[in-house]
Design brief:
By secondary structure, this protein is of the alpha/beta class. It has 15 helices and 17 strands. Strand 16 and strand 17 form a beta hairpin. Helix 1 packs across helix 12, helix 9 crosses helix 10 and helix 14 crosses helix 15. The longest helix is centred in the last third of the chain and has 17 residues. The protein is globular.
């Protein structure tokens, strides 16, 4: 007797989709004649941070969606959107329908920054702003652009920090050719930012930008990129980092080109500062009026130490882009310090280090929010390798018929969406863009109930 290996994957972003793809191509042990994979996601749509975490003016990065679509077209993979783990379905319920459950829920909220003034009005987290301009259904429809906020600070030197700086520095009309929803365009029209200052705690060799993201800053005719010479220094640790990674050398080369370039007089400017460690957000009457940084210096190893010298920067808003943070999942152990599911490289383990049978993790919920999208492939391969090796010992699902899970959701009254439903919504958004005055590639639908209605029509 042979049977299909039934696997449920919670999270339909790149980590979950890559895991499903690798699983359907894996060589299975004796006793299995294929796999049946269900991808579940709390959003009505697939693709996770590709849809809701990548800036709308990044069409090349969004090309990844085309590859993910090819994976999702596999008849052995099904999609169930608008299904929230912990609220609509629990682990013990999923285990009725699947031999194994893989968690690929990623990281959705901002990492905390514990400095004085961080909670002042006008201080924002990157994730909140990104979800707003990407049209996430759970984000507020309006953004609180202050009419006096002409100078803004962005804390953090990763790609998300660059995305935020670029979106704040661009004009709303420049983004009208992208997929931004109408409410985002209306909001960006209220943005009066002229100078966006990006602060790095360390030097140019330690930034986490990618070369492409950094070059794209200068693609707008309305923006000058100004790299300030203060703190633009290298120690032996910096030189080792440059020699070790070609991409880091390319980043430094781009920064040096910006450093040498004279400003053109564009109406908006993105300033990049090195060796400036934010220590306090300054406020008056409960609102942001400035940022205080401590000047740092490289210590020879690529790390920095404080100098005891401080500098105040008059800014009217602060955006922190220092990383994302995963949320704990109901009914599962959670490592609060690392903000991940405790695991041994694939198996989720209990507090005593014992693997929980049939429960796995991949992506940021497994290793933390580090690395680029492509890194999730090797990560998923490691997890799926463990799952496949464990397959003969896994407890078979009590209800292996795929239709049983559909009936369960129907019985709970959950208005779930499917891959066919996503294709309807996808076509609808493309049509909205084609009918727009600016002939856009697509225009996003924002409201959750509207997305669900279109998908289930």
């Amino acid at each position: 007797m042979t049977r299909k290996l039934r696997v449920g994957i919670v999270g339909a972003g790149p980590a979950g989709v890559y895991a499903a793809d690798i699983l359907t191509k894996a060589e299975l042990p004796e006793g299995f004649d294929g796999v049946a994979v269900d991808l579940l996601d709390r959003d009505p749509t697939p693709f996770g941070l590709i849809r809701y975490g990548v800036a709308p003016d990044h069409p090349r990065i969004k090309e990844i969606i085309k590859a993910l679509k090819r994976v999702m077209a596999n008849p052995d993979i099904r999609f169930f959107g608008n299904v929230s783990f912990g609220a609509d379905v629990k682990l013990e319920e999923l285990q009725q329908f699947y031999d194994a459950v893989v968690f690929a829920t990623g990281a959705r909220r901002d990492r905390d920054l514990t400095i004085p003034g961080i909670d002042l009005e006008g201080s924002y987290g990157a994730a909140d702003f990104v979800y707003w301009y990407d049209g996430h259904p759970d984000a507020p429809r309006e953004w609180d652009f202050q009419p006096h906020a002409e100078t803004i600070a962005v804390l953090g030197v990763g790609n998300v920090g660059l995305d935020i700086a670029r979106i704040l520095a661009k004009t709303a009309d420049e983004l009208l050719v992208t997929e931004i929803p109408d409410n985002v365009y209306a909001g960006l029209q209220k943005n009066v930012a002229k100078d966006v200052h990006v602060f790095a705690r360390r030097g140019p060799a330690q930034v986490k930008f990618t070369p492409m993201e950094l070059r794209e800053l200068s693609h707008s005719p309305t923006i000058d990129v100004i790299v300030h010479p203060e703190g633009f220094e290298f120690d032996e640790g910096s030189m080792e980092a440059i020699r070790a990674a070609k991409s880091q050398k390319l980043v430094v080369d781009v920064l040096q080109n910006y450093l040498a370039k004279e400003p053109s007089g564009a109406p908006h400017r993105i300033h990049i500062h090195f060796c400036q460690n934010p220590v306090e957000v300054l406020g008056e009457d409960g609102k942001v009026v400035g940022l205080r940084t401590e000047i740092t210096e490289l210590d020879g190893t690529g790390n920095v130490r404080g100098t005891g010298e401080y500098q105040d920067w008059p800014v009217q808003a602060v955006y922190r882009a220092i990383g994302y943070h995963s949320d704990n999942l109901p009914g599962l152990p959670f490592d609060q310090n690392a903000a991940v599911l405790p695991n041994d490289g694939g198996h989720v383990v209990d507090i005593d280090g014992t693997p929980i049978p049939g429960v796995y993790a991949t992506g940021w919920i497994k290793r933390g929010p580090v690395g680029l999208i492509g890194h999730t492939k090797s990560d998923a391969a490691e997890t799926i390798g463990m799952l496949v090796a464990d397959a003969p010992q896994l407890t078979a699902a009590e209800q292996p018929d795929p239709a049983a899970f559909d009936r369960y959701l129907d019985g709970r009254g959950i208005e779930y969406t499917t891959w066919e439903g996503w294709e309807k919504l996808d076509a609808h958004e493309v049509e909205l863009g084609a009918n727009d005055t600016h002939q856009r590639e697509r225009k996003k639908v924002v409201a959750r109930d509207e997305m669900v209605s279109i998908s289930r029509s």
